Amino acid sequence: MNLKGRNIVLGVTGGIAAYKAAELASRLVQSGAQVHVILTAEATRFIGAATFQALTRHPVSESVFADEQDGQIAHIDLADSADLVLIAPATANTIAKLAAGAADNMLSAVALAAKCPVWIAPAMNVNMYRHPAVQANLRTLETYGCHLIGPDQGRLACGWTGRGRMSEPAAILKELEAYFTETDMSRHALDGKNILVTAGPTREALDPIRFFSNRSSGKMGFAIAEAAAQAGASVTLVSGPVALEAPHGVTLIRVTSAEEMRQAVAARFEHTDAVVKAAAVSDYRPEQVSTSKIKKQDGPLLVRMVRNPDILLELGRKKKDQVLVGFAAETEKLEEHAIEKLKKKNVDFLVANDAVHGFGGDTNLVTFFFASGEKQRFEQMTKKSVAAHIVHAVAELLRKREQQ
Questions:
Q1: At 113, is the secondary structure helix, strand, or coil?
Q2: What is the dihedral of CA 37, 40, 43, 44, to 10 degrees?
Q3: Residue 127 and residue 71: Cα distance in Å, rounded?
Q4: How does pLDDT run along the chain (404 residues), one tens digit per residue?
Q5: Rounded to a whole number, what is the distance in angstroms from the first to the last CA of the chain?
Q6: What whole-number distance in Å separates Cα of residue 224 and Cα of residue 205?
């Protein structure tokens, strides 16, 4: 029911996967969505407008000019009314247009004018998909805030086997339902709250050139900060060195070492309502840092390491009414280590994940362990979905405390 009444603009471009778009339109309608289809000229070579009009009970848009009516700018009105624009399949050509900001047809004009989320499901030959230009265009679209779905691995219509298949309509529908569920969960949930999030790795210097660190990308922490801001919170994000831009509406403080992160967090802790410690802080640092580059020499290099401050443990001892959330990335005995950390560090709940699934990628496989003894296990999902569930849990804990 979380798609009931949603206005979905479904853009269909010219590829053999266009036949899947008919099933997708049907599934969306059956789920209660209002679906408005835009066909590119190339798409009509694979599937007709009559098919989509019959499935959606709405006129199908094909031309930015032919669809204009008196007193109406069709592509703007369609963009303004959309809750989400979904382009499935999205060819390499359409992806290139959107990345370049071109608006030479109805679909690209609507996508550029839309203030709602734009989702893209690529579909093309595996070699086209791998081409550096296509990959660069997809990365550009992600920086614009577009969400990519797929493509999947498998046999392609051209005879090649590899990544390039449009994701199945059932999978796309499931992801849409999850997105709108998360949106409903988090809307205004943190209005007026101050939230502090940590993200990324820390770097512990050995000399002016070398350092010790870990594989954290920062994506999880940045997703949490973004979700908290969308839920109405005033968000401060303290991040180690990562190649990510600050989410909209989030105050970003960049640090390098564990000690720098500790100081940044400690200075703000008293005035926060909740802290989510998603950063992968280095446990150890070199005892001595050379002021000049350590030169190569015969025999082994011995580096004595000392413990870094345990930021989460310190916050657990200091906290009063704040909600404190920790993370535990483990490679073995996940539940045992998570429960031990939960109790030792006095956190309200712990997000435990298999380190193999978490570091570097766009998905995570997590279990929430609460101080109350409750446990929530989730299927593998995108980090943005995990972030929405974390924000929802934080909001619930804050709400309960206010009622006490």
A1: helix
A2: 90
A3: 45
A4: 578 888 899 999 998 899 999 999 999 999 888 899 999 989 999 999 999 999 999 988 877 665 555 555 566 777 778 889 999 899 999 999 999 998 888 899 989 888 888 999 999 988 889 999 999 999 888 878 888 998 888 887 777 777 888 999 999 998 888 788 767 656 678 989 999 999 999 999 999 999 999 989 999 999 999 999 988 899 999 999 999 989 889 999 999 999 999 999 999 999 999 999 999 999 999 999 999 999 998 989 999 999 999 999 999 999 999 999 999 888 788 888 889 999 999 999 999 987 665 566 777 889 999 999 999 988 877 788 889 889 989 999 998 888 87
A5: 33
A6: 28
- One domain for residues 369 and 258: yes
Q: Is the dihedral of CA 354, 358, 363, 367 positive or negative?
A: positive
Question: Do the domain assignments include residue 2?
Answer: no
Using CA atoms of 142, 165, 46, 134 in order, give the dihedral in degrees to the nearest 10: 40
- 66, part of any domain: yes
Q: How far is residue 306's CA from residue 286's CA, in Å, rounded to a whole number?
A: 6
Q: Name the active-site residue from 41, 158, 267, 289.
A: 158
> Cα separation of 257 and 275, whole Å?
19
d(CA 170, CA 167): 8
From residue 343, give the alpha-carbon distance in Å to each of 210, 354, 365: 36, 19, 22
Rounded alpha-carbon distances, angstroms, from residue 197 to 77, 224, 238, 327 = 38, 7, 6, 12
Range of the domain at 55: 7-155+165-182
**How is residue 203 written in tokens?**
């770097």
The CATH number linked to 196 is: 3.40.50.10300
Instruction: Fill in the amino acid letter for 96.
Output: A
Do 136 and 240 lie in one domain? The reply is no
178/194 same-domain check: no
Residue 116 appears among annotated catalytic residues: no
**Can you tell me the distance from the alpha carbon of 346 to that of 315, in angstroms, rounded to the nearest whole number?**
8
For residues 223 and 287, what is the distance between their CA atoms, to the nearest angstrom? 34
* Angle at the Cα of 269 from the Cα atoms of 395 and 239, rounded to 5 degrees: 85
Q: How many separate domains does the chain show?
A: 2
Report which residue type is found at 94: T
The neighbouring-strand residues paired with 367 are 352, 377
Residue 118, CA distances (Å) to 173, 277, 381 in order:
15, 30, 19
Residue 313 is assigned to a structural domain of this protein: yes
